[in-house]
Amino acid sequence: METSFALTGKGYVIVAADTTSARSIVKMKVDEDKIKTLSPHLLMAYSGEPGDTVQFAEYVERNIRLYQIRNIYPLRPSAAASWIRRSLAESLRSRKPYSVNLLLGGYDTATFDPHLYWIDYLGTISEVPFAAHGYGAYFALSLLDRYHDPSASLEEGLATLKRCIDEVSKRLVVSPGKYKVKIVDKDGVREVEL
Amino acid sequence: MSIMELNGGSVIAMVGKDCVAIAADMRLGNQALGISSKFERIFPVTDRIYLGLPGLATDVATLRERFRFRVNMYTIKEEREIQPETFAHLVSSTLYEHRFGPYFIEPVMAGISKTPSGAVKPFIAATDLIGCLNFAKDFVVAGTASTKLYGVAEGLWEPDLEPEDLFETISQTLLNATDRDAFSGWGCIVHIITKDKVVTRTLKGRMD
């Protein structure tokens, strides 16, 4: 089943999402990128109802881009998170709500600190030091409670992420095989291989 | 699965001698899974009024934005700060506007109002999710631990408590009630409002 993790560290946020695209019991694709780069210092991992996910993620992506074109500066992570939350909350009480869960990781270039937001399809938002969505969350969150360190270096952060992925692979019946891992820090967004 | 118990969380407000207190837990969950232990559900409305919003977390954020907007509009139009009694009716009517598709929140508010003679009067109130007001003289409770809060508050509260004693009473009430509720807890925040200052303290609670 779909799983995504994210954790903050000293000046960075790591966001990871599995790469499977499934329909019913069938894996349709094993190299789907479910982490969008919204702006030079903002990442968003999305999961949920197939169709809704890509539609909503692209809607967010274009609107964040439009803001940047109009105002020269991009939205800061907290402002982007509020806008995305409001979009989901308005959608929730519409005729056909989007059913999309998000992890929003960003680096604030004005205050030089990383931010991570846990957002669900209802429009629930919470700023957290680490977060997860999907069945993997039941294993990863307790692990992160034990091993997460907000002042950890990037290497230590990636090692903690590896622990989460390994635990989910070991214990979850329907565990995903591959993950895409992206990092956002002062230098912007980049992808890494675990 | 009740939507009122999806995210968990509880709020309580108490009256003291020329002071009021409002307190809430800090857990945000998804049913039994804990998501955050730093979730705020009490917000300042004016310097003298605080509003607690236990219930569905998405509506906590939505209503907070809505009340900020409405209170700002009131302040601009009336050119004065809103009084607690007026604010309680604002909360009530805002919720009743959504009578047949409500926000899943049971607000609790606490504030201090000024009487025409210049004296101060403590004020607390709570409403249900469609805005039925409950003005109480002693304490009001809401959230997933509300039943337990009633029991403990009934035993601990007494009239005319001084601010420091009121702090102790409300803290012990909330801490002990949330320990008996699986969906509330994970730390608490307490605001003590007196006529010239507000003292905010965070409490450590059991993390299970």
From TrEMBL, chain A:
<comment type="subunit">
    <text>Component of the proteasome complex.</text>
</comment>
<dbReference type="InterPro" id="IPR035206">
    <property type="entry name" value="Proteasome_beta2"/>
</dbReference>
<dbReference type="InterPro" id="IPR016050">
    <property type="entry name" value="Proteasome_bsu_CS"/>
</dbReference>
<keyword id="KW-0647">Proteasome</keyword>
<protein>
    <recommendedName>
        <fullName>Proteasome subunit beta</fullName>
    </recommendedName>
</protein>
<dbReference type="InterPro" id="IPR050115">
    <property type="entry name" value="Proteasome_alpha"/>
</dbReference>
<comment type="function">
    <text>Component of the proteasome, a multicatalytic proteinase complex which is characterized by its ability to cleave peptides with Arg, Phe, Tyr, Leu, and Glu adjacent to the leaving group at neutral or slightly basic pH. The proteasome has an ATP-dependent proteolytic activity.</text>
</comment>
<comment type="similarity">
    <text>Belongs to the peptidase T1B family.</text>
</comment>
<dbReference type="InterPro" id="IPR001353">
    <property type="entry name" value="Proteasome_sua/b"/>
</dbReference>
<dbReference type="InterPro" id="IPR023333">
    <property type="entry name" value="Proteasome_suB-type"/>
</dbReference>
<dbReference type="InterPro" id="IPR029055">
    <property type="entry name" value="Ntn_hydrolases_N"/>
</dbReference>
<keyword id="KW-0963">Cytoplasm</keyword>
<dbReference type="GO" id="GO:0010498">
    <property type="term" value="P:proteasomal protein catabolic process"/>
</dbReference>
<comment type="subunit">
    <text>The 26S proteasome consists of a 20S proteasome core and two 19S regulatory subunits. The 20S proteasome core is composed of 28 subunits that are arranged in four stacked rings, resulting in a barrel-shaped structure. The two end rings are each formed by seven alpha subunits, and the two central rings are each formed by seven beta subunits. The catalytic chamber with the active sites is on the inside of the barrel.</text>
</comment>
<dbReference type="GO" id="GO:0019774">
    <property type="term" value="C:proteasome core complex, beta-subunit complex"/>
</dbReference>
<keyword id="KW-0539">Nucleus</keyword>
<dbReference type="Pfam" id="PF00227">
    <property type="entry name" value="Proteasome"/>
</dbReference>
<dbReference type="GO" id="GO:0005634">
    <property type="term" value="C:nucleus"/>
</dbReference>
<dbReference type="GO" id="GO:0005737">
    <property type="term" value="C:cytoplasm"/>
</dbReference>
UniProtKB/TrEMBL annotation, chain B:
<dbReference type="InterPro" id="IPR001353">
    <property type="entry name" value="Proteasome_sua/b"/>
</dbReference>
<protein>
    <recommendedName>
        <fullName>Proteasome subunit beta</fullName>
    </recommendedName>
</protein>
<dbReference type="InterPro" id="IPR023333">
    <property type="entry name" value="Proteasome_suB-type"/>
</dbReference>
<dbReference type="GO" id="GO:0005634">
    <property type="term" value="C:nucleus"/>
</dbReference>
<comment type="subunit">
    <text>The 26S proteasome consists of a 20S proteasome core and two 19S regulatory subunits. The 20S proteasome core is composed of 28 subunits that are arranged in four stacked rings, resulting in a barrel-shaped structure. The two end rings are each formed by seven alpha subunits, and the two central rings are each formed by seven beta subunits. The catalytic chamber with the active sites is on the inside of the barrel.</text>
</comment>
<comment type="subunit">
    <text>Component of the proteasome complex.</text>
</comment>
<keyword id="KW-0963">Cytoplasm</keyword>
<dbReference type="GO" id="GO:0005737">
    <property type="term" value="C:cytoplasm"/>
</dbReference>
<dbReference type="InterPro" id="IPR029055">
    <property type="entry name" value="Ntn_hydrolases_N"/>
</dbReference>
<keyword id="KW-0539">Nucleus</keyword>
<dbReference type="InterPro" id="IPR033811">
    <property type="entry name" value="Proteasome_beta_3"/>
</dbReference>
<dbReference type="Pfam" id="PF00227">
    <property type="entry name" value="Proteasome"/>
</dbReference>
<comment type="function">
    <text>Component of the proteasome, a multicatalytic proteinase complex which is characterized by its ability to cleave peptides with Arg, Phe, Tyr, Leu, and Glu adjacent to the leaving group at neutral or slightly basic pH. The proteasome has an ATP-dependent proteolytic activity.</text>
</comment>
<keyword id="KW-0647">Proteasome</keyword>
<dbReference type="GO" id="GO:0019774">
    <property type="term" value="C:proteasome core complex, beta-subunit complex"/>
</dbReference>
<dbReference type="GO" id="GO:0043161">
    <property type="term" value="P:proteasome-mediated ubiquitin-dependent protein catabolic process"/>
</dbReference>
<comment type="similarity">
    <text>Belongs to the peptidase T1B family.</text>
</comment>
<dbReference type="InterPro" id="IPR016050">
    <property type="entry name" value="Proteasome_bsu_CS"/>
</dbReference>
